[in-house]
Design brief:
single chain, mainly alpha
């Protein structure tokens, strides 16, 4: 009787098996390394984009702190100005952070695009099995205990 335990295997996986595992999204990837890359990218982006972000934040604060008397017909223009200033503040940072984080993941494990991991698994949508697991007694008692101990 053959065992599928990783400890019992004596041979390396074949290239075909590696390719199949890669197509299914089963690749070695460190979550901690990805998080560290994202954190480092965020810190570096704050360092380099910080002065520009601060300038836009001050502009937004001034716009909100000293609004001219706004008439009803000018309200939409004022809201758009505030929205545009907020977008100029956050979008460059968020887009670059996303790109750098994805680049760190791609460097770590290569470009793997698989739809099998995103597929819906009907057996997991069975409420008879999933609801009791979600509403387990120990979870409810722990939540109650923590709620009572709040000051």
């Amino acid at each position: 009787m053959a065992h599928d335990d990783a400890g019992d295997r004596t041979e390396q996986p074949t290239p075909r098996r590696r390719q199949e595992a890669r197509e299914e999204g089963q690749i070695a990837r460190s979550v901690e390394l990805s998080a560290a890359v994202a954190l480092l990218a965020g810190v570096l982006l704050c360092r380099f984009l910080g002065p520009m972000m601060l300038r836009h934040m001050l502009d937004l604060t001034r716009a909100l702190g000293h609004p001219a008397p706004v008439r009803a017909d000018e309200l939409l223009v004022w809201v758009r100005l505030v929205g545009w200033t907020a977008a100029r503040l956050t979008l460059p940072f968020l887009v670059l952070l996303l790109v750098l984080t994805i680049a760190g993941t791609v460097i770590q494990s290569g470009l793997v695009v698989t739809w099998k991991k995103l597929g819906i698994k009907p057996e997991r949508l069975n409420p008879v099995e999933t609801v009791p697991r979600s509403l387990c007694l120990s979870c409810g008692s722990e939540l109650t205990r923590q709620g009572i101990s709040l000051p």
